[in-house]
Amino acid sequence: MSIGSVFNNGVEGFNRASQGIEKASAEINRASIEQQDDAQLAQQRQLVAATPDEAVTAPVAQPARIDESLVNLKVEEFNAKANAQTIQTADDVLGTLVDIKV
Prior knowledge:
The chain is mostly helical. The protein contains two helices and no strands. The longest helix has 45 residues, at 3-47.
């Protein structure tokens, strides 16, 4: 396996981890907004003395789970660190090879 392919694999893995971090962050944001909306809806029902049996429109997508999103965020952080270390190691090996040949 060449140093270039190791370096490229590290970069691709880092990019995937970065995309995973963005996705997990968006899910956390969506979950926190949904929680705020639920709290506001409950307050509005109390203000107008609405019954809890009122029909509520079903959400189009499944509600975001903040706990799963936080775990995914941490996993992607570890993935990013591991791939950054792979890139650093490939760079160090390449530097060593250049030093040996000169």
